[in-house]
Write a structure and sequence with these properties.
Strand order of the largest sheet: 2-1-5-3-4
Shape: elongated
Strand content: 15-25%
């Protein structure tokens, strides 16, 4: 059998902590095993025992290198070299019984059934007629089934290629026939170098959903719809535009520094101007949520930035609102307000918002939210004979609205009552009038 190791003059290679997957084949049984970090040989063998229920001491671990040779793995260094040769591609390992460990390719005049020729060798021998594989030349104890399967694949290659070519041709024809000549074809966004933690698809096409609480967790739209992420209370940022420095040039980049200015644009939450967390809002009531945020970085925020809804319950009338000023300079604070309306059903509702640039890139490093409680309305029991009551004070009509204003921090009851009367009980207009003072 053959081994491939690095020479002494090559630089040292270390096991990385990046997640990876390995495809393992034993006869017709093929498994795909995922590791949280690049495994050692002992860890790999232990996983094979657990997943495939075999005695790994009776098998050789082999893979096909870049020259088409079947290489045996017996040490951690050889396993690291196998990962290095794959260059980010999926490593496929074939388990070969050790009772016939010496490859027939080492014997003169014998053809190895697992010998894979390189692309250059295939081109040089394209004009030479290929003789049929003689199964009688291979050892009969373990290689015969493999030779027969290989012979069948070689014979059916033209048929498979014809079917694949016809399928691709039909698909392309049907696609373009269904499109109008004047209809532009908009390709789906590709989030390169991003892996879906649900189905491991890469790159993610279309919308990328990134968990804000987890350190490195992304989902495609399909896995996000299935609810793959089981952590309760986690919020996902909806990213439609791929976040790549090479794709979109940062307009705030400091050209005297190699790093983009986004890393130095910092936002700090100061306080909730109105509607603190867990404020009680009657069902269906309109209110105005105001956050106070400060620019704590050395750079001004991009012009025409916005505050957008990213996850949770969208209580606002719009999913995004522009900042009240074109740009916020370092050290300045800004009050960002969104008109909202409480749901009619009782319960706790929370919506998450983030600052984004005009081209859709989040910045600032923080998220703000609104969280309210809609109380349960108790049913009113009608009395059979209502008793005459004293005249209702006009102030009692606005009791509910006055309580909401008091919870928001507007404690001047006389001023609140006067504005409510002037606005005909409209709570939203009253809040806007109070904020203008």
């Amino acid at each position: 059998y053959q081994r491939r190791v690095r020479g002494k003059t090559n630089s040292a290679v270390y096991i990385t902590n990046m997640a990876c997957s390995i495809k393992v084949q034993l006869g017709d049984d093929i498994r795909r095993i995922r590791f949280n970090a690049q495994p050692t040989l002992a860890h790999l063998k232990q996983s094979l025992v657990e997943f495939m229920n075999i005695d790994v001491n009776g098998y050789f671990l082999k893979y096909i290198d870049d020259e088409g040779d079947s290489i045996t793995i017996t040490t951690d260094l050889e396993l690291i070299e196998a990962f290095h040769l794959m260059n980010g591609k999926l490593l496929k390992i074939v388990l070969v019984p050790s009772n016939n460990s010496i490859s027939s390719s080492q014997k003169p005049g014998r053809a190895c059934p697992h010998k894979i020729k390189s692309k250059d060798s295939a081109k040089r021998q394209a004009s030479i007629p290929k003789p049929a594989i003689n199964a009688s030349l291979a050892p009969q104890n373990i290689w015969s089934p493999i030779v027969e399967q290989f012979q069948e694949v070689v014979e059916n290659i033209p048929q498979y290629a014809s079917k694949i070519t016809k399928t691709i041709s039909d698909t392309i024809t049907d696609t373009f026939n269904g499109l109008s000549a004047n209809t532009p074809v908009i390709p789906a966004a590709l989030h390169t170098h991003v892996i879906c933690d649900g189905c491991e698809a890469t790159p993610i096409q279309g919308i990328r959903w990134k968990c804000i609480q987890c350190k490195d967790y992304d989902l495609c739209s399909t896995c996000e719809a299935k609810g793959v992420h089981k952590q309760t209370g986690h919020f996902f940022a909806k990213i439609e535009v791929p976040l790549r420095h090479g794709a979109i040039r940062c307009p705030e980049r400091n050209w005297g520094n190699r790093f983009c200015g986004f890393r130095r644009m910092v936002a700090t939450f100061v306080k909730d101007v109105t509607v603190d967390d867990d404020s009680v809002i009657p069902g269906g009531a309109s209110f105005l949520k105001v956050w106070r945020i400060k620019n704590d970085g050395p750079l001004p925020w991009p012009r025409d930035s916005r505050l957008v809804f990213v996850n949770g319950h969208n209580l606002g009338e719009n999913e995004s609102v522009p900042l009240p000023v074109p740009s916020v300079s370092p050290g300045e604070t800004v009050d960002i307000s969104i008109p909202m309306k409480a749901p009619t059903e009782p319960g706790t509702y929370k919506g998450l918002y983030r600052l984004v640039t005009p081209w859709g890139r989040p910045f600032g490093g923080i998220a703000v939210w609104v969280q309210i409680i809609v109380p349960e309305v108790k049913p009113v029991i009608d009395s059979p004979q209502p008793q005459p009551s004293a005249p209702v004070d006009e102030d009692e009509i606005f009791v509910s609205a006055l309580k909401v204003l008091n919870d928001m921090g507007f404690v001047n009851r006389e001023l609140n009552l006067g504005l409510l009367k002037r606005n005909g009980g409209d709570l939203t207009r009253t809040i806007q009038d109070l904020l203008s003072f």
